[in-house]
Write the structure tokens for this entry.
Amino acid sequence: MTPVLTPLAPFGVLVEVPAGTPFATFEPEQIHAWVAAHRLVVIRGAAPLPKRELPLAFGRLGPLQAWSFGAVNELRVLPDAANYLYTPRAVPLHWDGAFTPRAPRYLCFQCVAAPPPDAGGETVFVDTTRVWAAADDATRDRWRALRFRYRTERIVHYGGKVVAPVVARHPYTGETVLRFAEPVDDTNPVSVVAEGVAPLESAGQITALRAALGDPRAVVVHRWTSGDLVVADNHALVHGRRPFAGSAPRHLQRVNVHGPERTWRDAVRDSLRIRRPEFMAAEIPVFAIAALLAVRGGGAQLSLGLMGPLVALFFLLFHVGDMANCLADRDLDAVYKTHLSEAVRGLGVRGVQLQIGASAAAALGLAAYLAHARGRPEIFALVVGGLVLGVQYSLRPLWLKSRGPYQIVTLWLVIFVGPMLLVARVVGATVSPGLVALFAAYGALQQGIVLVNTAEDLPEDRDNGIRTSAIALGLRGTLGLSALLVGLGGAGVGLGLGGRLAGQPSGWLLALAPFAAAWLWVLGGIARTYRATRTTGGEADALVAVRAAGKRMPLWITATAWGALLAAVGAVGAA
């Protein structure tokens, strides 16, 4: 493959290759060199990149910026858009990353559908190094003294308040660049005010900067062609968009790429991320419910020397499973869970493997100590089994995540029943059949909620060859099973905890009320989602309903978990 390079005016380069050329044939070093020389690189002729491959392709240039929606920003007109980016109206000049801790190095675009030549929608790029070079000394001095305060409400993926100087240094070339964003008087407006000057002077400075950035010697107006791949230097350039006809087919996909620099803080942050601390809100009740009910059963030993290692062991087991899942799914997560994918890439596969091994070794050591201290060798066996299942859920050779309905059984054991049995066996003298049944019911309830998340990931899992329970059962079957597990599991938890609260005749109903309310709320939500999957025309429409329910899944799990925990506290008081 020999690309044909054509300089653009006044800057940029068009790189043309034979139709269907894989993007992977471009070496990252070559693209870095083109951007350094030209600021803007337009690649035409390359094979289209499916969305699932887009982050991995552009990720070869550097770490990806992770937004709340993942890595890929779908820039197209949306009905009832809450932000001007998703309308056909103009987008004022700005640089990306103003409202984030770190501005990206590159903006990478793929044009999925381009508007007709006369419909508008061109992207405007301004080389601020050229604007600076053309300015006289008095103007440069004025710009050096300017700092603008930007403010916008966080309605979509960005927002807040930031103060930034107009004059800055390019972090990779050392050149002087300008950082400026025009005010937005549109949906989700952006206010721009110069600090330390009167309002009229602030408005004058904004007008002067706008005029300077409109210098045709520094402006490229890019008219999109379907299939274009564009890489732009976000530090040297500011960019915007011309308005276009709302009926015109304009669809861009954008991925932001950071520079390669990392600090020890990044390593600490990434090590925390792959341990999924956001799950702790639902994991704490798993531990506490088992411990409280084991205490009620009698024979408890709650010394600090026992509970400290048990708490550490409990969370280490979850960490091992979560880290293994992040490692196995690092490519799959690049689209929607970019923060996890980038954490693995930042630490390196070997680094994550070492952390998994160290955590597993620590868990085995704590398990051996607790088994010896309590005289119960089954404690060690439970931990070994949990580690094996937790790792093999995500990794081969078993890869239980891809075993259809066995995925459900594995998660039920690894996340709920197994850890609860472990805690109860360490804390209490005996574990009765009734207590095991209660743990099983609690696990069924929570696993039924988790199935909603499994269902919403069905297209991505299918594209990546992962045969989850949702793929084996289908959307309707998965939601039907979800409703069944939540219904039966919640009823079992209510009956089990209600029986233990029977000794508190004046307060047992009150103690059980939060759980009952949470359970009925969740059951109703899943039942409505199941009905929606039966009445919609196809999978795409059904997924809309499932994904709407998926957004409530963390709250559903948390509400039922903490409701059950409150009832367990009441059960201990009733003993």
